[in-house]
Amino acid sequence: VVSSANVNRTRLYCKHDGSLNEGFEIVSHPMTLEYHKDKMPWQAVMNKAVELGYRSHQTSTCGLHIHIGRKELGVSYEEQEDVISRIVYFVEAHWNELLKFSRRTESNINRWARRYGLLNNTKDTYTQAKKGTDMGRYVCLNLYNPTTIEFRIFRGTLKHSTFVATLELVHEICK
Fold this sequence. Notes:
The protein has 175 residues and is an alpha+beta fold. It contains seven helices and five strands.
């Protein structure tokens, strides 16, 4: 077990994931990118998971989901909506590159993180995405949660460098 001095329930917990046949979901509480990189002992957590035989990337169901608080994207609702619309447009406009980076197969991403589709401009693409909330949460950017947006396109990993690169990419997209 990773030392409780390094990881405790104030930063990280495990829970049942109904979409998995076996396994569990590791959930962190909200943290900045810097905290994830400099203070959170992810390398130790991942090393222990590998030591215990967990597979993450070597399965077809494991995903790395990253939630971004809407409050981090703007002070007002209008500012948040503007930033989210640009994020949705960016993801759709750069879908092929993000698919490669995601490490998911096309059939796997279509099951767990479908795209909304790219339209002529940012506003139309975002309007279509907001109408797509009836698609459920299995979309590339889950917009259903009122307090976060959730990037769902990435395959799970127990490789620290891949994990950090994914966090950094999402951070840059949101900037």
